[in-house]
Amino acid sequence: MNQDTYTKFKDFLRSNLSEWKSLRDDEIDMQRLCSLSNLVFLAKAQQEVSPRQVIFRKFSTQEGVVDREKEALIFLEMSKKGLGPKCFGVSEEYRIEEYVNARPIQNKEFNEPEFRRKLAISLANLHKVNIKGIDKVPLLERAFNDPTYFKSFEDKCNEEIYTPEEEAMIEEIKTAVSKEEIEFISKILPKDDPVFCHNDLLGGNILIRKEDNAVVLIDFEYGSYNFRGYDIGNMFKESTIDYSYSSAPYFQFIDSYFPSDDELREFLQYYIVYSDMPSEEQKKYGEKLVLNHDLLLEYIEQNNKSQEFNKRIENLFRETKIGALLSHYYWMIWAVKMCKQRQCDFDYLAFAYAKYGYYRKLKEELQEMETY
C-alpha cells in the first residue's frame, strides 16, 4: 500500500480518537496483522495518549453487504454492553476497536472453577442481549428446515473424491441424515424462546484479559438467535477438542475436559442467577460470588424459591445435554461440506466421523433417560 493510503487510515484514527488528533503520521505505527478477509492493523501511538494501542480494521470490498451489516450490528451491541471489545469509531470502510491485552483460554481452563463461573456469567449476560434487525428464528431451525442444507451435504457425500476407507466413513455418516434421524432431531429441538447466541465458542474466540482474568468473547461470525442450551453445550464440547496438533488429523478429543454433571449444575446455578440479576447488582457483588460458591448458594436461598430454582436448573441441564448432542450433529454436517479442500491440511472428514461417533453415543445416553 502506498503512503497516501496509510495517511487516510491515520486521518480516520485522528478524527475518532481525541488524544490522537495532534499526532503526526510518523508518530502512528501501523502493524499489519493476519486476517483472511479484512485488512487488520495494530495501530500504536508513539506518544503517551489514551488509548495507546487500538485495532484498525479496513473492511474488504468483497464481503457481502448483508453479512457486514449483521456483523456490525452485533459488534456495536456487544461493545455497548461491555461483552466484547469497545468500538471507538466506525464507518462503511473502517472500524477502530479496543486492543485487548489478552490470551485465548486453554482447553483445561474451561472447567476450572474460576473460569467456569466467569464463562457462565458472560453467557448469561450475552443471552440477555436483544439485537434488533437480526432474524430471531433459531439458527438450528433455519438450518434443518432449509432444503438446501441437507441437499448440499448429500451432494458432497456423492462426489467421487474419496478413498475406499473414506467412502466407508461417508456411508456411516450418511445414516445420521436419514428421514428417521431428522425426525428425531426435530423432536428434541428445545421449545424455549431463542436467545442471542455466539454459536462458536471455541478456545480461540474466548479471551482471558491478562490484567484481571476477565472473560472477553470475540468473533461473532456465527452469532444469531438460537437455543441457550446449544450455546452452553457447544462451548463445553469445543473445550474437549485440542486443535494444536501439527500432524494429521490435526486435532484430538479429550473427554475428561467436559464437566461432570455436578460441575455442569454448578455452572447452571451461576448462569441462572446472573440471567436474573440486574447489571447494577452484578457490579455491587463484583467477584465475590465467583470466588465463593457458598456465598452464591446463600444468595440463591435468599432470593429464589429453592424448589422453583432447582426445577429451572434441571430443565436447562437437560437442554444443555441436548445442545451438546446437536452441536456434534451440526458440526458433523459442516465438516463434511468442508472436507477434501486442497488449500487446507486439516482432516475435516476425520473430524466429521469423530463428531458422528459422539452424536451416536450421546443419542443413546439421551434415549436411556427419556422416551420420544
Overview of this structure, please?
The protein is built from 14 helices and twelve strands. The chain has helices spanning 3-16, 65-81, 113-126, 139-144, 147-157, 164-174, 179-188, 228-238, 261-276, 279-285, 288-291, 293-303, 306-338, 348-369; strands spanning 28-33, 39-45, 53-58, 87-90, 94-98, 102-104, 195-197, 206-209, 215-217, 224-226, 241-242, 252-253. The strands form four sheets. It has a five-stranded antiparallel β-sheet with strand order 1-2-3-5-4, with helices on both faces. A three-stranded antiparallel β-sheet has the order 6-8-9. Helix 3 (113-126) crosses helix 9 and helix 6 (164-174) packs parallel to helix 14. The radius of gyration is 23 Å and the shape is globular. The N and C termini lie far apart (60 Å). The model has no long low-confidence stretch (mean pLDDT 91).
Could you write a compact summary of the structure shown?
The chain is an alpha+beta fold and 372 residues long. The chain contains 14 helices and twelve strands.
Number of strands: 12
> How many H/I helices?
14
What is the C-alpha radius of gyration, as a whole number of Å? 23 Å
Q: Which topology of the largest domain does CATH recognise?
A: Aminoglycoside 3'-phosphotransferase, Chain: A, domain 2
- The amount of helix comes to 40-55%
SSE order: HEEEHEEEHHHHHEEEEHEEHHHHHH
Termini distance?
Answer: 60 Å
What is the domain tally?
2
Beta content comes to 5-15%
Instruction: Give me the CATH superfamily of the largest domain.
Output: Aminoglycoside phosphotransferase (APH), C-terminal lobe
State mean pLDDT (0 to 100 scale): 91
Which residue ranges are poorly predicted, with pLDDT under 50 across at least 5 consecutive positions? Answer: none
**Major sheet summary line:** 5 strands, antiparallel
